Each structure stands twice: as C-alpha cells, then as structure tokens.
Amino acid sequence: MQIATQGRVAVIAMLDLALRAEQGPIALATIGARQKISLTYLESLFARLRRRGLVRSTRGPGGGYGLACSAVDITVADIVYAVDESKPPGARAAPEPSSANPSAGQRIASDWCADLEREMAQFLASVSLHDLVLQQDPAGQGAADRHFAGAAQAADAPRGGESLSADRSK
User: CA 77 → CA 6, 68, 104, distances in Å?
Assistant: First the structure.
C-alpha cells in the first residue's frame, strides 16, 4: 500500500485545521499560504473531504472550513481514503490470480501483500487527528510530520523484519 501525495497533503491540511479549530472557519487560501499548497489543489481535496463528512464549510465573509466533528473521531485512514476515493483495503476484492492455478510462491506473495495492506490500514485507522495534534512540539517542527512521514516511508519501501508499528506517546 502506498499513500498518495494527495493523502499526505490532505492530512497536513486537516492537521492545520485541527490545530486552529478554536479560531473558527479557516479560509483555504490561508491554509495554502501557511502550508505552501496550491489553492486549486486544496479546493479539490476539501470538496472530497466535505463529501465524506470530515469538514464543514461556511460561506460568506469570515467563512472557510472547519472540522465537521471532533479531531478524536477523525483518523488518518478516514482522511486518506476520503481523498483517494477508494475503499479501505479490507473492503477491496482480492486480486485475481494471473492463471487458473497460481504457484505456491504466487499465493504466498499475494497473501503476504494482503496481510501487509491490512496492517497498514489498521495502523492508519489507529492514529487520530487528535493524536497528531498532541504530537506537535512547541518549536513548530511537529513530531506528527516526522511520525506520518516515517509511516509513509514504511508503506513505500517496507523491508523484511521491520515492524510497521510506531511509538506514539501521548
């Protein structure tokens, strides 16, 4: 499983919202300027996040976006799957074997990949937006950025024997 750039950007933007939830609605232009993300790209992502019920929008002067529910109730998996517009890995159909009788090696590899995808999905579902907020340090370089980047790197290039779990102190 690989987390696409749009998923990573959506998590960054949602974290920006969560960190400033008490300020009321936040304009996408403000998030874009702060995070150096294109307004057009944010508009596309937030349309999907709104359809999935993760953000709410307020129109007019002083309008913008806010979280539709508590940061505790929003997981990284919710955000990633909302912008990816795909089903969670557990809901995906098993890949069809390339032949009617796949070899033992093909079955083992396929099963291992399915297990890995389930573990990644469980990990993403175990991290709430609130967890990421709590991991921010006062210097502004958030532990959440390092934590999520590490998880994304693990998804991109898992190596034998490494654990996909991460130390998340609260």
Answer: 13, 16, 32
Give 132-169 pLDDT, tens digit per residue. Answer: 999 986 544 444 444 444 444 444 444 344 433 344 44
Residue 144: Cβ-neighbour burial (10 angstroms; 0-12, 13-18, 19+): buried
Cα separation, 48 vs 13, in Å, equals 13
Residue 141's alpha-carbon distances to 22, 30, 133, in angstroms, are 21, 19, 12
First-to-last alpha carbon distance for the chain, in angstroms, is: 26
- CB 96 within 8 Å of CB 19: no
- Report how far residue 32's alpha carbon sits from residue 40's, in angstroms, rounded to the nearest whole number: 9
Q: Which two tokens stand for residue 11?
A: 């998590």
Count the helix, strand and coil residues of the chain and give each as a percent rounded to the nearest 5. 55, 5, 35
Q: Amino acid identity, residue 106?
A: Q
Q: Are 98 and 131 in contact (CB under 8 A)?
A: no
